[in-house]
């Protein structure tokens, strides 16, 4: 078991507002479950978010998946986030130069910075992508996750690439709130302190999906891999009873965290 600090304590170690809010939310609500709501429409997403809201710390969206996305989307999700006490994470995976991501994050059809507390970015363009996103997000109190590792088979985000992501995060403690990672317990050097580790590719049965996704159990992700937040998609929204399934994942994730303290 990879032992670590409580969420309450880690809230005191970050300079990013979103990370502080998330650590405190997880401790208060006793959940480290993020649901990846990759459903077919915004309408379904909103129904799902209202049902599973009490179980989760984060609702993860892919706003370009929903054909019925409209200008009311953000406001509706923010209302649900306030009602159920969760945060919103648009999994946009920005990947362009700084100047371009300024527009993609603040403007366009989706205006992500207006409604999503958290978003994420590839570091393949270099640190300019962080500077660009920060120009938009920092004044709004947003947080950025860097993709240090991915859950898919054959990912190129490994070794030196992962180390470079860690070094870039260290240069932007006010805006970078953490990482998407799969095995941060194996990282060299200092532990992530106030930075949040979020891990996708989580399903109670393990296995994969035939398209490269690789699953670990919640217990393994938290206790062995050293993650802080489990990200679960199909394990919940494809279940016969998504609310019961969310409750089950929540318990598995929380029990694993408590036993890793
Ligand atoms: N996701 C991954 N792996 C990654 C990253 C994001 O699976 O490395 I970065 C997303 C894709 C999907 C969710 O939205 O996390 C996982 O969904 P399933 O639990 O349905 O596989």
UniProtKB/TrEMBL annotation:
Q: Does the keyword Transferase apply?
A: yes
Residues annotated to bind substrate: 38, 60, 151, 213, 233-234
Q: Which GO terms describe its biological process?
A: 'de novo' pyrimidine nucleobase biosynthetic process; 'de novo' UMP biosynthetic process
Residues annotated as domain Orotidine 5'-phosphate decarboxylase: 32-249
Which Gene Ontology MF annotations are present?
Answer: orotate phosphoribosyltransferase activity; orotidine-5'-phosphate decarboxylase activity
Looking at the record's lineage, which domain of life comes first? Eukaryota
Keyword Magnesium found: no
Question: What are the EC numbers?
Answer: 2.4.2.10, 4.1.1.23
Active-site residues, record numbering mapped to chain? 91, 93, 96
Q: Which UniProt keywords apply?
A: Decarboxylase, Glycosyltransferase, Lyase, Multifunctional enzyme, Pyrimidine biosynthesis, Transferase
Report the leader peptide range: none
Transmembrane portions of the chain: none
Listed pathway(s): Pyrimidine metabolism; UMP biosynthesis via de novo pathway; UMP from orotate: step 2/2; Pyrimidine metabolism; UMP biosynthesis via de novo pathway; UMP from orotate: step 1/2
Q: Report which reactions are catalysed by this protein.
A: orotidine 5'-phosphate + H(+) = UMP + CO2; orotidine 5'-phosphate + diphosphate = orotate + 5-phospho-alpha-D-ribose 1-diphosphate
The entry assigns this protein to a family as follows: In the N-terminal section; belongs to the purine/pyrimidine phosphoribosyltransferase family. In the C-terminal section; belongs to the OMP decarboxylase family.
Name this polypeptide is given: Uridine 5'-monophosphate synthase
Q: What species was this sequence derived from?
A: Micromonas pusilla (strain CCMP1545) (Picoplanktonic green alga)
Give the taxonomic lineage as stored in the record.
Eukaryota, Viridiplantae, Chlorophyta, Mamiellophyceae, Mamiellales
Measured against the full-length protein, the chain present covers: 224 to 484 of 484
């Amino acid at each position: 078991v990879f032992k670590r600090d409580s969420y309450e304590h880690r809230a005191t170690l970050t300079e990013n507002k979103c990370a502080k809010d998330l650590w405190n939310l997880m401790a208060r609500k006793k959940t480290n479950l993020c649901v990846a709501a990759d459903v077919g429409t915004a309408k379904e997403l909103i129904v799902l978010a209202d049902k599973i809201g009490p179980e989760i710390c984060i609702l993860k969206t892919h706003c370009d998946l929903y054909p019925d996305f409209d200008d009311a989307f953000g406001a509706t999700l923010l209302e649900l986030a306030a009602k159920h006490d969760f945060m919103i994470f648009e999994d946009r995976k920005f990947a362009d130069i700084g100047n371009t991501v300024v527009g993609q994050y603040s403007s366009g059809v989706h205006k992500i910075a207006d409604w999503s507390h958290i978003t994420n970015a590839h570091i393949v363009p270099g640190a300019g992508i962080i500077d660009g996103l920060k120009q938009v997000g920092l004044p709004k109190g947003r947080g950025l996750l860097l993709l240090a590792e991915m859950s898919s088979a054959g990912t190129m985000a490994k070794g030196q690439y992962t180390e470079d992501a860690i070094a870039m995060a260290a240069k932007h403690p006010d805006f970078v709130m953490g990482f998407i990672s799969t095995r941060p317990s194996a990282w060299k050097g200092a532990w992530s302190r106030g930075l949040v580790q979020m891990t996708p590719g989580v399903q109670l049965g393990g296995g994969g999906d035939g398209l490269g996704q690789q699953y670990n159990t919640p217990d393994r992700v938290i206790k062995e891999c050293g993650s802080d937040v489990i990200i679960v998609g199909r394990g919940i929204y494809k279940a016969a009873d998504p609310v019961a399934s969310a409750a089950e994942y929540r318990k598995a994730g929380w029990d694993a965290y408590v036993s890793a303290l």
